[in-house]
Amino acid sequence: MDFQVVVLAGGNSKNLTPLISKDVPKPLLPVANRPVLYYVLHQLRQSNLKDLIVVVEGEDAALHVGGWISKTFVDGLHVEIAAVPEDIGTAGALRAISHHLTAKDILVVSGDLVSDVPPGAVAATHRRHDAAVTAMLCSVPVSGSLESGSSGGKDKTRKPGRYNIIGLDPCKQFLLHIATGSEIEKDSRLQKHILHAVGQMEIRSDLMDAHMYAFKRSVLQEVLDQKDTFQSLKQDIVPYLVRSQLKSEALLNGISQAEENGNEKLSSPNNQVLVSKILANASTPSFHEPYSMEPDGSAQTRKTHKCCAYIASSSSYCVRLNSIQAFMDINRDVTGEADHLLSDNIIGPSPKLGTKTTVGPHCMLGEGSEMGDKCQVKRSVIGRHCRIGSHVKIVNSVVMNHVTIGDGCIIQGSVVCSNVQLQERVVLKDCLVGAGFVVTMGNEYKGESLARKEK
Amino acid sequence: MGAQKKSATARVSEDQEELARNPLQAILLADSFATTFRPITLERPKVLLPLVNIPMIDYTLAWLESAGVEEVFVFCCAHSKQVIDYLESSRWSSQPNFSVTTIESHNSISAGDALRLIYERNVIHGDFVLISGDTVSNMSLTQVLQEHKERRKKDANAIMTMVVKKSKPSPITQQSRLGTDELFMAINPVTKQLLCYEDKAEHSKGFISLDKTLIADNPSIILHNDKQDCYIDVCSQEVLSLFTDNFDYQHLRRHFVKGLLVDDIMGYKIFTHEIHSSYAARIDNFRSYDTISKDIIQRWTYPFVPDILCGSSAIKVERQGTYRASDVTLSRSAHIGSFTFIGQGTKIGNDTKISHSVVGEGCTIGSNVTIEGSYIWNNVTIEDGCQLRHAIVCDGVIMKSGAVLQPGVILSFKVVVGQQFVVPAYSKVSLLQQPTQQDSDEELEYADNTSGTGELRYKLNGDIAADLSETAYELGTGGVGYIWSVFEGAQDEEWKHSVAPIPKDKLVKLMLDKDEDEEQLTQDGNVLSASGELKADSDDNGSEDDDNADSRDDYGFFEKEVEATFLRAVHENVKVDHAVLEVNALRLSYNMASVDCAGAIFYSMMKLAVESPHHSASELHRNAADIITKWVKLLKSFLHDIDEEIEVILKFEEMCLESAKEFAALFPQVLHLLYDKEILQEDAILRWADEKEGADESDKVFLKSSEKFVQWLKEAEEEDEDD
């Protein structure tokens, strides 16, 4: 398949502090003892999409990520690592690596996607319709673990970015409307001319844009070049392509009345030829065709491009790791209901367990970890080489690598990063403990974020 | 659905009992409360206009009877006498299980009034079918009634079920078929609840707005542009009382349906029922008259087709959809084309060609006449060599030899067209003069409907000859009648609603209209992206933030309204208290703060001062002082705190710079005046001065000019403190 894959593994997402640090950039954040990036790369390998560019923000992070990839995916994946400056947005990142793109179609995947939806299926849908863009949509994940069930309602207002309002045609093949971010909180405005052409549009608020897109390379580069203020794929480029799908000529050439900007006009003549070339090979019959015909049958036709949707079946798993809550959820799910994601997981030699220590179901213990006597572990992930004392209780938590936990600690609903030291009888409830932090003896914390001061 | 069906079978017996208790009732509005069929409806009510030679109301009643309705209340208003007389003489008065009762009104001006009147009569005892007398359908009501009842049992708020039908697939035919405006409906695909209903959508808007709460409440909504409203509603009793409660509801759709959808306090719900194979359509304008006539001739409305409905009068259906009454006198050389109806006792001369047309009873058509796609009612005389294309010709019209009707012409009752006269396309000709104050505005449409019908007609009958002699030339030699002028604004719409097929260039125009929508959309689109949390796109600086633009616009309107109110208050010597009330009402309706009111009122006052005659600055100052003295109370009532007072100063500054430069020189004086009148407190002025201190030099012009005054205030304040 003439597909190039761009994995956007950027981001020092502020949502995830203090979990991520210089040493652990976001793509390497462990989910069930594997870096989150693993899940995407694994799925791509399964779909036989092997020509990858992994885009990482910042040189240091790029080195880390590159090192890890070359260690882990020695077989078959052709991976290039590209470092881009921080905070240039997803569109900016693509713009920066635009000259590396050569294939006919480009699949753009977010590096924080944990999903079992085959990327190959998205690519195939894209090819079948000869679309300008195909977006993967999945059901809105059920957020919040058992304990944090109360946050379900509040979540919606706090993180609307995770939800979308999506308009589909009756066959659910074409994407007719997409709203993200703050637009969701407003009244939706749906374009009449698209409605005229389609007749009916289904508006769904229970679908989420999973940030996996297939683009036609020429269209993508065109848009990146012309709309140099576009910063985000999800919020700018995709919505732009969707709303201009029935009038792409005017917009892609920048000759529409609305755009009185001088430079736009200058650039239009040379692009015109290119764009018409791009769009000439539309083949599948759809509502775009009759629309592109003039009513009086004259030769002049309107340019259209297709925006497609691939809707993952509701049983598939698809979550983005973009918040602490999502991190907890994913860790829980990957070890629990969605454990098929770890199908080829190599479970290390059983850790040493003390007497009367119980490890419940949906738990994971990394290789080389040791636990003392009479410990209890429920629905938690424990990383590699952790030393855990006696009478320790760990529930609904994530403990990363090289963590030392003293006797009698109780850890509930918390994340404990690598190299943390918890001294005796520490009680953590709903806490986040940043890498390398030392919690002194007998302290109790509730709902706090503990991190070392940056030097 | 599955669950519904199950419960349906379980309750069948119960339902039947209920049905037995309450006979199924229907309200038939025999007045459309619209003027689309003028001039014809000035003389005859719309429901009695012949549709393929049978009055429209007969189709509606026949369908209601076949659908199991037992009691029909016919509401008549305009020409109520004619409707009542007709119903009494027709077969409907003597049907065994089908009673037709008329309810007469002389002062109803809308469907809302009609339903309020019916509510007062207290004749409806259960669910009823609400339709207008111009509906042609052959659908079965059983299923929709059943659904409605089931829903009612579960949810007492489900008070209405609307029948909808998929319209034609192409975006152009959707509108051009029935000549209706485009309609957008949002429906929940599972419950079939209607969530949004938008007709008469302004063309200028390139988008549809869906309320965010709708989306929050319904995970999936289907937005339809491909559905047609059949205007057949199954309603519960509450609908009538709702009309009574909301006395401002006039139009069934525009007010009632939209009102219910918007109102979330009562929580009433409307549902839809889609029909697939049956026919349902409403004759709303001449175009739908044409379309539905053709559908009837082509038997889509079976069994409600002329040969069956007429029963005894022996109309034969021949090949190619030609209907011919038994005693038609037809010349051998006359050619009757396909899909044509020829009524009883009509004579047709040599070499006459008729196709796709309806010719009523007792007509006399001469030789060499061409009739194409036209509707000729009863007792019409068409002399030799006339040509008619896509026209409606009412009873008793005489067309002298060689007259030509261009497409879209309407000839009302007894009009005479002179020899060789060519009636221009889309003209409407009547013996009655056009009512003078015409307006396409919908409210007037309601208002002048009743007044226009009754009085005008009989008044004119008296001196009709005198009137006509002056203007007879309008229709050629020997012609009688007025050609109605098309009032402005509606001119563009004429082709949309006429019987004539839409010319090609207009179709193109229809599409181009949409293109314009799209151009608009570019801006909207960019705005969308701009609001999507990023910096404004470089090319949309013009429309950077339309929310702001909107609110600015709103403020502009608001300011104008306030000014108008103020001027009226000045000229009509309205009491200050009343003016305060009015401005307050405006404030609420425009959703403004009292700061805005203060600004707007002050603006109006100063504007008035500038506009009243004056010769020198001192006179202007006096003007201003007079006005301020007189209306100080009005202004004061919106100045609750210092911010509002500062707003007044800022407004004044703005005026001095822009609209009323004459005041620039008087700035300190007027400021002093406002202080003296206790409109502005010294705190406000000082705060204003402080704020301005840091501003640009150009911005400080007025501060400088009033420096002395400000200085004086400051000193006064210090003295106060010293005390």
Automatic annotation (TrEMBL), chain A:
Residues of the EIF2B subunit epsilon/gamma LbH domain: 352-440
Keyword Kinase appears in the UniProt entry: no
Homology family: Belongs to the eIF-2B gamma/epsilon subunits family.
Function, in words: Acts as a component of the translation initiation factor 2B (eIF2B) complex, which catalyzes the exchange of GDP for GTP on the eukaryotic initiation factor 2 (eIF2) complex gamma subunit. Its guanine nucleotide exchange factor activity is repressed when bound to eIF2 complex phosphorylated on the alpha subunit, thereby limiting the amount of methionyl-initiator methionine tRNA available to the ribosome and consequently global translation is repressed.
Organism: Hibiscus sabdariffa
Compartments where located: Cytoplasm, Cytosol
UniProt subunit comment: Component of the translation initiation factor 2B (eIF2B) complex which is a heterodecamer of two sets of five different subunits: alpha, beta, gamma, delta and epsilon. Subunits alpha, beta and delta comprise a regulatory subcomplex and subunits epsilon and gamma comprise a catalytic subcomplex. Within the complex, the hexameric regulatory complex resides at the center, with the two heterodimeric catalytic subcomplexes bound on opposite sides.
Annotated Nucleotidyl transferase domain residues: 5-143
CDD domains: LbH_eIF2B_gamma_C (cd04652)
Main location: cytoplasm
Protein name per UniProt: Translation initiation factor eIF2B subunit gamma
Signal peptide region: none
Annotated keywords: Cytoplasm, Initiation factor, Protein biosynthesis
Automatic annotation (TrEMBL), chain B:
Repressor recorded as keyword: no
CDD domains registered for this protein in UniProt: eIF-2B_epsilon_N, LbH_eIF2B_epsilon, W2_eIF2B_epsilon
Keyword field: Cytoplasm, Initiation factor, Protein biosynthesis
Biased composition (Acidic residues): 539-548
InterPro entries: ARM-type_fold, eIF-2B_epsilon_N, eIF2B_epsilon, LbH_EIF2B3/5, NTP_transferase_dom, Nucleotide-diphossugar_trans, Trimer_LpxA-like_sf, W2_domain
Protein's cellular compartments: Cytoplasm, Cytosol
Limits of the W2 domain: 552-723
Family designation: Belongs to the eIF-2B gamma/epsilon subunits family.
PANTHER family documented for this protein: TRANSLATION INITIATION FACTOR EIF-2B SUBUNIT EPSILON
UniProt name for this protein: Translation initiation factor eIF2B subunit epsilon
Source organism of this protein record: Hibiscus sabdariffa (roselle)
